[in-house]
Design a protein that fits this description.
Elements (H helix, E strand, L loop, with lengths): L2 H11 L3 E5 L8 H12 L4 E5 L4 E3 L2 E3 L12 E4 L6 H10 L4 E4 L10 H14 L4 E3 L5 E3 L17 E8 L2 H14 L3 E6 L8 H9 L6 E6 L5 H11 L5 E5 L4 H11 L6 H11 L2 E3 L2 H13 L8 E5 L2 H13 L9 H7 L14 E2 L7 H11 L7 E5 L5 H7 L5 H4 L2 H15 L3 E4 L10 H16 L4 E2 L2 H25 L1
Length: about 500
């Protein structure tokens, strides 16, 4: 990608001024909605609403045309009926905008001659010197640039290492919210829609060289240039992890793709072969994609073979061993000298210092947890430890102990510090599993505690998962990526 192209994209992701074409002064519409979202999100630059009727909204002058806007604009957001879009794009181009996002639908995805013609017209305008995101999309989410999706005033303002390129607007907003819950922070998100100009291949190459991006997630329904995408994926995945969720792999899914974004789905066999050859990580839903991104951003990049499990319950050992074996890992028995050090720390009876380390009780003090983790890490065979913290039991414990609240009983901040201290002391990573199996109104206090605990841990850089399967599966994805990357680098020496 040329320097000029990079400069244009920087102005799109971090614009100093925005024109919103199609802002109504009352009622609901995409233009009014994105204006309110940007103001609520805290966009720091200049916003120029545009509507032929003029007026004032939210303390901002509404300009009757793009031409009336004083000075240059960096980015245009277009939310007018489809037949008016080409005129709006051309006006932004003449005004010096680096690019526009077209929220409007009614183009090639309709399958009508009128819609196809409209999209071809805006494509020709793009060729004259302006970049287009969309049409039929949710636009750009860029915390550093102060941009958010429609709708998205509640998205995280924190800048982080994960980027996401999606041909679905719904998947974009869902992934942004899912990532916020799980502790992911984002560099950039782009909802492509029909992708008449800026498409997945060019954006993949851009993000591959973007210093703010360490992990790239993608939702793809189809590509126009298969060879170009393969080359870009092969190149970028050799330097950064790329996680791909491919939609439309089934026959019925392919038909749905065609009506959604006017793309072609493609064979599952072909796509899976592409991912293997390029060392791209394939996800099968947004949950997997976010889980893999969590591991890839918070854990050291290496291969993980042996796991120590710390939790309560005998059945846990059976389940953990089965789960590890399913994904090519093991839960080895700890060395005898390590077990002798751990055993005195555990409550009696019913505990076990083998592996999984059964603490026989959902309640364990921070000091005991730290002691167990530090000592288990001394076993050279252990690559990573997984702590299963059953906080949903603490409501009953609080009642039985006569505590005023769950938070009074549970020193969850101290537990998080104990885990973090163990990681710092041993240099071996820890993953935490925080299942929430309570669904009644009475469990709201527990759910809130789990939310707070999750936030504290992820802020420390400790990944948190909802269940053991997700944690082990994510370790497997990370291990597979690192193993193949190392093999490729060795072959090139």
């Amino acid at each position: 990608m040329t320097g000029t192209a990079n400069d244009s994209l920087k102005r799109i992701f971090e614009p100093e001024s925005i024109a919103i074409i199609g802002v109504a002064t009352e009622g609901f519409g995409f233009g009014r909605g994105i204006l309110i979202s940007l103001l609520a999100y805290g966009y720091p630059g200049k916003i120029y609403p545009v509507n032929p009727k003029g007026g004032v909204t939210h303390g901002l002058t509404i300009y009757r045309s793009v031409e009336e806007i004083p000075g240059r604009i960096d980015f245009g957001i277009i939310a007018v009926p489809a037949h008016k879009v080409p005129e709006a794009v051309e006006a932004c181009r003449k005004k010096g905008a680096a690019g526009v996002e077209i929220l409007s639908s009614g183009f090639r995805e309709t399958g009508t001659p009128e819609g196809i013609d409209l999209e071809e017209r805006i494509s020709r305008i793009a060729a004259e010197g302006i970049r287009i995101i969309g049409p039929n999309c949710f636009g750009v989410y860029s915390p550093r640039g102060g941009l958010t999706f429609l709708p998205g005033p509640d998205l995280s303002r924190e800048t982080g290492p994960v980027a996401f390129v999606s041909q679905s607007g719904g998947h974009s907003i869902d992934f942004a919210h899912m990532g916020k819950w799980k502790g992911l922070a984002f560099s950039k998100m782009i909802s492509l829609g029909n992708g008449t100009d800026l498409r997945e291949t060019e954006l993949l190459r851009y993000l591959g060289s973007d210093p703010d991006t360490e992990v790239i997630g993608m939702y793809i329904e189809g590509v126009k240039d298969g060879h170009g995408f393969f080359d870009a994926l092969h190149d970028v995945a050799s330097r950064k992890p790329v996680i791909v969720l491919k939609g439309g792999l089934s026959e019925s899914g392919g038909r749905a793709v065609q009506s959604h974004t006017a793309s072609m789905g493609g064979s599952s066999i072909i796509w899976e072969s592409v991912f293997r050859q390029c060392n791209a990580i394939q996800a099968y839903d947004l949950g997997e994609l976010s889980d893999y991104a969590l591991a890839l951003t918070m854990l050291p990049h290496r291969e993980y073979r042996s796991i120590a499990i710390v939790g309560g319950g005998g059945a846990l050992g059976v389940y953990a061993a089965d789960m590890a074996e399913r994904y090519g890992m093991s839960i080895p028995e700890l060395k005898e000298d390590v077990r002798r050090q751990i055993d005195p720390l555990l409550p009696k009876p019913g505990s076990s210092a083998r592996n999984p380390i059964d603490i026989a009780n959902p309640y364990v003090t921070p000091e005991v947890l730290n002691g167990v983790l530090v000592r288990a890490a001394q076993d050279d065979v252990i690559d990573v430890q997984i702590v299963i913290q059953l906080l949903y039991h603490y409501k009953a414990l609080a009642i039985s102990f006569g505590a005023d609240s769950v938070k009074t009983l549970t020193p969850f901040r101290e537990l998080a510090d104990a885990i973090d201290d163990a990681v710092s002391a041993t240099k071996k990573p820890v993953i935490v599993v925080l299942p929430d199996l309570k669904r009644e109104v009475e469990s709201i206090e527990v759910t809130e505690m789990i939310r707070e605990t999750r936030k504290i841990l992820t802020d420390m850089g400790i990944p948190v998962y909802d269940d053991l399967r997700s944690a082990v599966q994510s370790l497997n994805a990370l291990s597979g990526y690192c193993r193949k990357k190392q093999a490729r680098e060795k072959a090139l020496r």
